[in-house]
Amino acid sequence: MSLEQAQKEIQQLTEKINYHNDLYYQKSRSEISDQEFDGLLAKLNQLEQAHPQLKQADSPTQRVGGAITKEFATVYHQYPMLSLGNTYSEEELRDFDGRVAKGLDGDAYEYFCELKFDGVSISLIYENGILVKGVTRGDGVRGDDVTTNVRTIRNIPLKLKGKGYPANFEVRGEIFMPKEVFAQLNKEREDIGEERYANARNTASGTVKMQDSGEVAKRKLDCFVYSLLGTETDTHEDGIKLLETWGFNVSPTYKKCKDINGVLEYIHQWEMKRLELPLETDGAVIKVNNKEQQDRLGFTAKSPRWAISYKYKAQSLSTRLNGITYQVGRTGAVTPVAELEPIFLAGTTVKRASLHNANEIARLDLRIGDYVFVEKGGEIIPKVTAVDKDKRDAKSQPVVYIDKCPECNTPLIRFEGEANHYCPNITGCPVQIKGRVEHFIQRKAMDIDSLGERTIDQMYQLGLVKSPADLYDLKKEDVLKLDGYKDKSVKNLLDGIQKSKETPFESVLFAIGIRYVGKTVAEKLARYFKTIDNIAAATVEGLLAAPEVGEKIAQSVYQFFQNAENQKEITRLKQAGLQFESTAKEPEKESDTLGNKSFVISGVFERYERDQLQDIILKNGGRVLSGVSGKLDYLLAGDNMGPSKREKAEKLGVKIITEQEFEELLKGHSL
Predict the structure, then answer these.
(1) What protein family is recorded (predicted)?
(2) Whole-model pTM?
(3) CATH second-level architecture of 598-666?
């Protein structure tokens, strides 16, 4: 393909992908499947890699991330990102209106009302219609440059639609994590034995500052914009209309109000209706609409005099605690759940609420029969926040946390430094067994979509499946025993199980369900160790050398492979024909500069990820080892390296080098 042909095809693919992106994220419609869309993106990426000189700053491939940012540069805001004054009171809103009227000397004015989204403020800077910078609020005067991460958010335009926009301007918005995405993320964390995130806002904030933009892209953040700066418009409403015209995602929940009574109607209208939205909201923002009047009203030291934020009070209701039930997860973690007298809270009927763990029950000093306060707040799942002790029965007794598994009656254990209790009966606890099979077949793991929770339960009850390996022993006559399964559905199920044998090692490693090993960690381990046998043979120290692996994960992986039942399961899965070797290609060799010298990589580095360093070493003729020994040439040491590794290297006389010294080696200099 000639350069001219490549350029033409890149242009056509870019236009097609942008069209489908806009259709999906702005109009909530789709004309092609996710697979077809991913195919277009993959084809564009291939062309850009083959012809890097043709890649544009606004290419849709920027959306998938992949760049690593070790330190976020500080950027001074051209227009300070001031905070707004807050109120929870309608009376104070009328006082605000009185100050506006006084400041405008009786001139007529109107308000523009918008919902206040519970997310992370962002400043987006555009030059000639192209996104060039995304900056966090920071302290209001300066923030962090998070452009690489912002580009992964699908409904933030990389290139504007239409014409007539200024050469340089700024847009303010709110990055947030949709409720559905947050719930799924917590489900995934629970699935690998990690604690759930507390709320969507803090999770979005942490995501925006992640070092790996590829991981940011997977989090599926969203953004609503609400302000246009750097262009002449008569009113705030005019700016909003321009933003809509240029392809920005503006929430359609705004309204222009002629007076403070209209503002109060808007606030009342959305108090309950906002709960139906796909994101968390915590109030409304009220602004004087006319820009000239905004200028006349001016600012205090901290906030504009022409705008105010009205906060909805977090709805908290009291209801009776009828009991506590205990749920057992796939990893054996036991979660207590409050069983409540039903109440209507924040738009839904609430019968159950999270109690988190034994520590939380003790902190609340809970008693069965107590009247407890329940809130939704910024969380998806309601939580118990306090006890109304004035209503407590004097004869009530503190809740005693269970000491045996509610599913299999095995004594519970509690690991040092952890809040949760666990059932250790991994091979005999029904919930854990079924949970491991459900985890194994999920889309991000083995992707056996003909199976579901109900079918797995039937298989377990009939004694057909007691572990994931049993799936590969199923015969037609076995599946015909299941309710609703006939010849065609049996064939689909068995074909799906057979096809799963082609699933790459990275997904298989995630599927086998090692505690704390999520999808990303599984991919890093598979790439670093190459085979399941190498992982199984690794020491804790060797595991710590792999990217993304800390002490908790290393201990969990090591203990998993020491367990005889797990070893037996892996052997059966091997015999079934699953993939246990990574097919990721070794980087092509570029030089012999490192002369077959061996390296162990440990710690955190300023300019590189550990797997990047591994690639560089292999490309330049070096070798990467997993553990320190007397035969090792160099220990490449970053920040926060484990002290035991350094001590061992010093004891054996192994040369310890810094990131800068490693770069000198790459230049051919001796140390």
Answers:
(1) Belongs to the NAD-dependent DNA ligase family. LigA subfamily.
(2) 0.74
(3) 3-Layer(aba) Sandwich (3.40)
